């Protein structure tokens, strides 16, 4: 079962999402929260696999809550999926950098939302590769380059790992990586696991951010 927490300041939205999720045999809704403070408390108590997080809420917003969840060892296994009405909003950029695993607009089709939850819980592939890449490219365009240079750990990557990182940033899934590199699926999973460990990244979305910050991929490039 995938354990999910639903966070939104609108009660009707929370209830609607919970009803949808509970209709699925492999998803268990462990709780709802009306703001970021309640979301953090809920996550620490129930340890959900995925938090569906609204980004604009009173008291404590989704960005601040995501920062707390990403920094707390007690919620290290929890993935945050941002739901927003503001496509490519600057707060979404910040949430991705803070540790969110992906984002979806609130008008996403129900079947796509359910698939996104399963993808994020599995940690196996980028959520909406084209949308995530577009978001990161916009992030790079609007964010000054970090003065400290390449992120820690990049210089310790092997040539093959750098190649895999570039392809992950391009939005390829593990299956697509295996086909492109002409290696087994398990070999690809090993490379990705090594990247996550060496770069201290929570998931593939964070690998994409690091690839852009390291200059391995440039906006609009292949």
TrEMBL record:
It comes from Actinotalea ferrariae CF5-4. PROSITE patterns: HTH_LUXR_2 (PS50043), RESPONSE_REGULATORY (PS50110). This is LuxR family transcriptional regulator. Residues 150-215 form the HTH luxR-type domain. Keywords: DNA-binding, Phosphoprotein, Transcription, Transcription regulation. GO terms for biological process: phosphorelay signal transduction system; regulation of DNA-templated transcription. The modification 4-aspartylphosphate is found at residue 54. InterPro entries: CheY-like_superfamily, NreC/VraR/RcsB-like_REC, Sig_transdc_resp-reg_C-effctor, Sig_transdc_resp-reg_receiver, Tscrpt_reg_LuxR_C, WalR-like. The keyword DNA-binding applies. The lineage of its organism: Bacteria, Bacillati, Actinomycetota, Actinomycetes, Micrococcales. PANTHER family: TRANSCRIPTIONAL REGULATORY PROTEIN NARL-RELATED, TWO-COMPONENT RESPONSE REGULATOR. Residues 3-121 form the Response regulatory domain. One of its GO terms (molecular function) is DNA binding. CDD domains: LuxR_C_like, REC_NarL-like. Pfam families: GerE (PF00196), Response_reg (PF00072).
